[in-house]
Input
Amino acid sequence: MNPYRLLFFLTLLNLLNFVDRQLIASFANFIVPDLGLTDWQYGILTGLAFVFFYSIMGLFMGTLADKYNRPRLIGFGVLLWSVFTALTGAAKGFISMAIPRAFIGVGESILTPTSMSMLSDSFPANRMGFAAGVYYMGVPIGVGISLLIVGFLGEPLGWRNCFYILGGYRSSFGDRRIFL
Output
């Protein structure tokens, strides 16, 4: 596969990764009162519930990326985090939101180590700085898009429907075998 096409696709996935990651924080003014969350609970949801699993599982996912089919691993991660993004929209309280956020952390932890491994296989060493720079461009763009989603769709659709749509859209996107 063309390395630039792969880079574009992985950057797009990283962008979606950060839309999802930031969306819970961007929707704070909607989520906290709707679920009756305390500040402590909301802090756990936006931090520890996700970050703990993302960080720990990232170590294991990097090892898996060295041993198994990387595109399938990414496909599994996208499917996992997409399903649990949609389930975030169904949350009725703290626990029913914390569990999906933990699994989203597991699913998203697959993307970066596996992507970096694939990119290092596709680009020469003297172009890896460029490839990494483009890939990580997905971070600020994804955060910005999450704010646009809240600003334009938060009121008319509600926070729950935005999570349903994002999870459903991405899972159909992730099933396309563009780079398999």
User: Anything to note?
Assistant: Residues 138-174 form the longest helix (37 residues).
